[in-house]
Amino acid sequence: MHNNGTRGSLQPSVLSHFGLRENPFGVTPDPKYLYFSHTHREALASLINGIDWGFGFQVLVAQPGMGKTTLLLDLLSKFRADSHTAFLFQPQISPIELLQSLLAELEVNSQAASMRGLCEELNVFLVGAAKANKRVVIILDEAQNLDFTSLELLRQLSNFETSRSKLMNVILAGQPHLLNRLSAPEQQQLQQRISAIGCLRPLSVQDTSLYIEHRLKIAGCGGVGLFPPSVIRDIWQNSKGIPRNINRLCFGAMLLAFAEGVNQVSNSILREAICDLDPDHVFSQMHAISEGPGNEVVQQTERFLRPEIPVRPDSELIAACGTINIGKKHQAPAAATPIAAVESSNLKAAQNAAQAGTSFQAASRAATHNFALASEETGVDKIHVATSGITRTRASQANLGVDRPLKRSATDSQRSCNSSTVHRQNSQPHNRIWLNVLLTTVVAGLVVWFVIEIAASSSWSQSQRTGAAQSILSSTNVPQSDPQLGTTTSVKAAPITTLYFDEDSTNINSQSGRSLQEVAEMLAGNAELYLVLEGHTDNSGPEAYNLDLSNRRSLAVRDVLSSDLHVSPERLELTGLGSAEPAQSNASARGRAYNRRVEIRMIERGSKR
């Protein structure tokens, strides 16, 4: 083990131990470390060719961590000498701000504040660059975050052209989700202007070995064998061929090898590095520790580290108090987080109620009864504590009384003792009588309660029980009268579960898949139940597109239920409402994430529309 003292950084010692000038596995997009695998070389050649031929619009997509930004910076360095270049890292801004950022990157001193003025200044700059025979190359990284209005602005900017060539070359780079956005119906005109689409694929095991060797050589490592072939294969398998993951594993393994004082990474060292970077493993270790002393602090820390789950606003929670709301209580997406998900305990309650043929009101009463029993037990504990306190107080007072000098005659003492003995003898029968009366009352109350419960349960027919459940499960609108207006209103029952989607996406994640599995099991246990799949969107884009997207989300859920989980399509009813019924305000990204959803409501056979 190395002893580096209590002062100074470990970095020089680690680099010296392995013969390195700098960290070869950094996280910044440094073009000098760019390794040209077959897929990277192909993508770069396609982008250069598109700029040389004046394609106008090109697209580059890659998974996170594939070195996309590093490749783009290397591309710009090849054109910076004879071209005007602009690189926008975070384009999730308004169209006006996008234009302002673009002009600032092109070093245009803009004074305009309106969209029209900014477009005119950009056009003047582009025309001047064309006359000077200089290209204009614009790269927008993370372009999957561009909203509809920004993409429409880019389409309009593509009209800046002469009769012979385009005035600027635009490269949209982003994650695979970018292709979903560009394939939307309202983006057809922009899609037609895209001349080339490139992609970066994960590295093979051979490329992974060459990638690691390349980075070590650039960082000054003259020796060989730091990562043996068997270790490199394990790195490739655990990183899935993604360069950023490879860097994390290699750097963590190097630190552990330094700590053990060895110059080569072994498979056991790599496994330890993998565990250190695995959140599930870290959480399991925390859980194991939490079973010992001091577990309250560990459990509280784990709650803070866990991803935040969306919770519904207070108004929705209040509205749901009258029923058993078996749905997501909206806090989410991580996330969007985006966003995750369904509350499994509520879904389990719905499943148990459906399989038992009982109503959700019965489940509600059972839950209320359990709460009442718990409250009573708590009350007994409080009475016990209070009584103990009184007893201890009296005992202490008695102890204090012993120390006081008592000046009484022997006759008085004898009289007092006789009186106390007689009192105890007289009070004992009375105590027994009251105890018997109390026990008899409790037993009689229990018998009466048991008889009433049996009579009530036998008097309910099956149709009455299912009818009570129908009042909550039915997804049809239930008319209710309004005494003030003299009219009726429609109240929609709460969904049994809610699935959430990424922006402009119909893909169903694994957590939603598990929820659908539970819904399918619930349907299998009761042939009288049907489902209504109600799709929703946020307010991004035209309403016609939102309606189409909401319907496609409902169709995606139906396909999983019918194809994968073998639910009959006749038991599924689809509807899409677009952005007409938002769960939260669309003014924020958080609210829009909650609105991209499919609500699943349950109905009985007789109430199917």
Describe this protein with a few key phrases:
alpha/beta, Rossmann fold, 60s Ribosomal Protein L30, Chain: A, 3 domains, 22 helices
CATH class of the largest domain: Alpha Beta
Strand content: 5-15%
Number of strands: 11
Helix content: 40-55%
Task: State the strand order across the main sheet.
Answer: 2-3-4-1-5
**Mean pLDDT figure:** 74
Radius of gyration: 36 Å
> What is the molecular shape?
extended
Number of discrete domains: 3
Annotated CATH homologous superfamily of the largest domain: OmpA-like domain
* Content-based structural category: alpha/beta
Main sheet overview: 5 strands, parallel
Notes on the structure:
It is a single chain. This protein is of the alpha/beta class and 609 residues long. It has three domains: 11-21 and 205-279, Helicase, Ruva Protein, domain 3; 38-200, P-loop containing nucleotide triphosphate hydrolases (Rossmann fold); 308-372 and 460-609, 60s Ribosomal Protein L30, Chain: A, CATH 3.30.1330.60. The protein is 54% helix and 11% strand. It has helices spanning 11-18, 38-52, 68-79, 95-105, 115-131, 148-157, 177-182, 188-192, 205-218, 229-239, 243-260, 267-276, 279-290, 295-305, 314-320, 344-356, 360-402, 410-459, 462-473, 510-524, 543-564, 589-595, and strands at 57-62, 83-88, 135-140, 169-174, 194-200, 478-482, 487-491, 497-500, 529-535, 572-576, 597-604. The strands form three sheets. It has a five-stranded parallel sheet, with helices on both faces. A four-stranded mixed sheet has the order 8-11-9-10. The chain has a two-stranded antiparallel sheet with strand order 6-7. The chain starts with 10 loop residues before the first helix and ends in a 5-residue tail after the last strand.
